[in-house]
Amino acid sequence: MDSNHQNNYKLNKTEKKFLRKQIKARHTLLRHEGIETVSCATQILVVANGGLGNGVSRNQLLPVLEKCGLVDALLMPPNKPYSFVRYKTTEESKKAYVTLNGKEIVDDLGQKIILYLNFVEKAQWKELELQALPPGLMVVEEIISSEEEKMLLEVQKSLKHRRVKHFGYEFYYENNNVDKNKPLPGGIPAHIDTHSAFEDEIVSLSLGS
Description:
Number of domains: 2
Strand order of the largest sheet: 1-7-2-4-3
EC number: 2.1.1.229
Subcellular location: Cytoplasm; Nucleus
Largest sheet: 5 strands, antiparallel
Order of helices and strands: HHEEHEEHEEEHHEE
Structural class: alpha+beta
Helix content: 25-40%
Distance between the termini: 38 Å
Radius of gyration: 22 Å
Domain RRM: 45-113
Low-confidence stretches: 1-7, 127-131
Shape: elongated
CATH architecture of the largest domain: 2-Layer Sandwich
Number of helices: 6
Enzyme class: transferase
Catalytic activity: 5-(carboxymethyl)uridine(34) in tRNA + S-adenosyl-L-methionine = 5-(2-methoxy-2-oxoethyl)uridine(34) in tRNA + S-adenosyl-L-homocysteine
């Protein structure tokens, strides 16, 4: 829509209501979270109402966002009612802005939630959240791609009837531990283990969260 058309175009009642709510969401993010939105299109969008703090999970939000393009990263700060999505291209983020603004989704409790999207220059929550981590804990965001995550989740669908291959030490399921005096040949790759069974670093990979 060109500028002349915009000047002559009158919003209907529904459009006016949506615009008010979008502006309100923008002001709320700035006032309470210090998140400043921008008017020009960027690869990153802040999704108001699309956060863990108001009952929206990653599994609910990501498929909605992926309908508009390739999602490079989805950051969902703990206990916050918003999230950040970064698309591969600005064209994809523009499509999401137009398509998903005002879109209604259902949260974990079955309540209807309306999403409001705005462009931002960067995701600003990381520095604040990392200060609250326990000493020695390091969080590495988006260490694998969304495609790799999907592949791993597909593998885990058969978890109940899984076959287990041990590396480093054999895990004894009867006591949820290992015998460190009986190492298996070869090294031990990064995986999820019972913390009390080992010393030094433990690597945990979170999928679909």
